[in-house]
Amino acid sequence: MNTTTASLPQSPARSGPAFGILGAISTSHLVNDMMQSLILAMYPILKGEFHLSFGQIGLITLTYQLTASLLQPLIGLFTDRKPLPWSLPFGMASTLCGLMLLAFAPSFGVVLLAAAFVGLGSAIFHPESSRIARLASGGQHGFAQSVFQVGGNAGTAVGPLLAAAVIVPFGQRSVAWFGLAALLGIVLLLQVSRWYAAHHVARAAAKRPAVESPYPRNVVLGAIAVLLVLIFSKYFYIAGLSSFYTFYLIEKFGLSVQSAQFHLFIFLFASAVGTVVGGPVGDRIGRKPVIWASILGVAPFALLLPHANLFWTTALTVVIGLVLSSAFSAILVYAQELMPGKVGMVSGLFFGFAFGMGGLGAAVLGLLADRTSIDFVYHAIAWLPLLGVVAALLPRSRPSGK
């Protein structure tokens, strides 16, 4: 790519998407989130190895997601003012360190330290990667975010499958082999960082004027609050559903660990497929209908899930994954359009809040499971998607400059 200012279009929104960059950043997202999901998929192994309670299982999730939650908005805010293109390979290297610690962890404390390194890697990776996806979108912001997100969801889905094929038969130390994927991610991100550095320098040289929000400040703040409520609903529910899904299947239906992990893969794969839909549909019909349908629309299926047999449990979780996962791309792009010029901060805030709610949900629901049962937890969380009704409070029209 010619990196001189004169060769670049004055408005990235008028050029086509940079598919090579979107593909690289999506693949890197796959690698990053696959390594995260290995922790999730290893829960039954770690529980047996270190004799953990459900509360301690939830604490592992809380550690890496809370680390990411607290740091992502700060990193996003900082990089809005001073972009750090070469931070992306560093973030992947942090995740690699966490993975290696997890492979050789001799105690529960080291497992938590490994989770913190993975959280740090995600905190660095997500805000800048989301900014690059928008920069490479060619104006198709929802499409670009969906391409970026589907990589992450695919990685999350593949993790349990790989754990069932490699980690369950060969043990905890076999996790170290997945470091090769992290090295691939670092190589890809070095190329992305090179493109980002050249592209950002060109944009800065053009001195494009700042874009104002299409809404008054009070409307923006109210809409952001509504979107955060929706993120809470989605990720608190997902935390309960995914963190304890293997245990739920093992306890309720007597499945083996490998079979339960395969069912977890089916749910997470459905979530990855659903991610593809939300962004492009939002580009065509607006973000609000997609947000409304994806959160509130999943409520009937969530309420039926605790009462279903194994076949219908699998079928319902596929529907839940397809519908619910379409929300995040639409929510993120909607928020970015509410606050143009603050892509890093907004991305960091929403990724961070999502991670935080997922971690808090896993910890709280793990303690609840210890005191009651996994089945009770599934009954309790089934009501959370009803919070999707607050989407009615979002501004009716789409922000300008979609």
Automatic annotation (TrEMBL):
Coiled-coil intervals: none
Residue span(s) of domain Major facilitator superfamily (MFS) profile: 21-400
CDD domains for the chain: MFS_FsR
Protein keywords: Membrane, Transmembrane, Transmembrane helix
GO CC, alphabetical: plasma membrane
GO function terms (MF aspect): transmembrane transporter activity
Bilayer-crossing regions: 57-79, 99-125, 146-170, 176-197, 218-240, 260-278, 290-308, 314-335, 347-370, 376-394
UniProt entry tagged with the keyword Transmembrane: yes
Protein name listed in UniProt: Fosmidomycin resistance protein
Natural source organism: Piscinibacter gummiphilus
